[in-house]
Specification:
287 residues, mainly alpha
């Protein structure tokens, strides 16, 4: 199997894992405060990441890489989880998942700015088309649906795209799992203190679904998913493999409907199918 195929397989595994993030977050914020959920998931994943780095005796990152690791931490460890958790207090996970269709464009833009990639002009046509479809769907629902929730999701997409591109750039030299692990470890002291300060006064009333949601976003969304995702981006190109995120709404909508019983409208499905159709064209002209 050639390097390109391996890159896309790694990227697809990462996307499948991430697809469960918003439904799991939606379940967790029903009983956990969004701030606690954000810092708790980062603290739990940080402890696990520290164990991995110690077990494999990984060398500390170079001083020149610290700033980039902090950008990764602010983007995907703190920014995206917190903003999405806040957004999910105003909108359903099905609606929030559709906004994830904007992530490929954000990732590609930061891949050019930070990763030095230069996709062909036709690539941008397909990438922008996918994003326009998503944005058009959101606008068709009317801003009255929840302008706050939509704005939070858009901000989450921007910081996440930056974190993805920066992490992928570092993965070329540090390795995929090492990048997310060091980003988690750098944020661990602050996250652990905040988790202790924001912990609910009583855990007795927290149901099993909320705990399962917390476990999923801590282990899979915050650590395991990034191992595959950063490896795929580093191997196959940030802009190219990043287009796989257009598949995330499809998986996420299916999970939201199956596990949460949320309504998935024909319009949502139509937009998702149209957006997925853009992946093939974008992939063909990525390089």
């Amino acid at each position: 199997m050639d390097r390109t195929a391996i890159a896309w397989i790694n990227g697809l595994i990462g996307v499948v894992i991430f697809s469960g993030s918003l439904p799991a977050t939606r379940v967790a914020v029903m009983q956990f405060d969004p701030l606690f959920l954000t810092v708790a998931r980062a603290a739990i994943a940080g402890v696990l990441a520290l164990g991995l780095l110690v077990a494999f005796r990984e060398r500390r990152p170079a001083r020149r890489d610290i700033v980039s690791l902090l950008v990764v931490a602010l983007g995907v460890v703190v920014g995206f989880p917190l903003l999405t958790a806040l957004a999910l207090q105003h909108i359903t996970s099905a609606r929030s998942i559709v906004f994830i269709g904007l992530l490929p464009l954000a990732t590609a833009i930061f891949g050019v700015l930070r990763g030095g990639e230069r996709p062909k002009p036709a690539f941008w046509v397909f990438s922008i088309l996918g994003s326009v479809l998503v944005a058009g769907f959101a606008l068709s629902q009317g801003v009255a649906a929840s302008p706050v929730g939509d704005a939070l999701m858009l901000a989450a997409v921007v910081v996440c795209g930056l974190g993805y591109a920066e992490g992928a750039r570092l993965s070329r030299t540090l390795g995929g799992w090492q990048v997310i692990s060091w980003a988690l470890v750098l944020s661990l002291p602050v996250m652990a203190v905040l988790a202790a300060l924001t912990m609910p006064a009583s855990l007795a009333g927290i149901g099993a679904p909320a705990w399962i949601g917390l476990a999923y976003v801590s282990l899979f969304s915050m650590l395991i998913g990034f191992i595959f995702w950063y490896r795929g981006l580093a191997q196959g190109g940030i802009a190219a493999v990043g287009q796989l995120q257009l598949l995330q709404p499809f998986f996420g909508l299916a999970l939201a409907a199956t596990l949460l019983g949320e309504s998935v409208t024909p319009a949502m499905l139509a937009v998702t199918v149209a957006v997925i159709a853009c992946v093939a064209g974008a992939r063909r002209f990525a390089r």
